[in-house]
Design a protein that fits this description.
The chain is an alpha/beta fold. Helix content is 20%, strand content 29%. The protein has a 5-stranded mixed sheet.
């Protein structure tokens, strides 16, 4: 099982992220992202948690992602893999937590 933590402020689109691979998706939006771009069609249900950060500050979204990673690490089964998607090149890092 995998959870995705997505920095939408830097990615700007959810296209081609293979969202169907994740049990839960935490989408972090900055104060300057009024809309979400999603043009792919999905046959399966997606489980999104939308976290909107209202204040503008340097690295604000990064700090919120780090907080949620720590919070979810404490609350979820250690067999759940966390995948963090950041940056315009859609850098991804997945970690097995067991």
């Amino acid at each position: 099982m995998k959870y995705a933590f997505i920095d939408y402020e830097n990615i700007h689109s959810l296209d081609n992220l293979n969202l169907h691979l994740y049990e839960r998706i935490f989408l972090f939006l900055g104060a300057n992202q009024p809309t979400i771009q999603l043009s792919e069609k999905f046959n399966d249900e997606l489980n999104f948690t939308l976290i909107t950060i209202k204040n503008i500050a340097k690295n604000n979204l990064d700090f919120h992602i780090a907080y949620y990673l720590g919070k979810m690490d404490m609350q979820t089964d250690k067999n759940i893999e966390f995948c963090v998607k950041i940056g315009r090149a859609v850098q991804q890092e997945c970690r097995d937590r067991s």
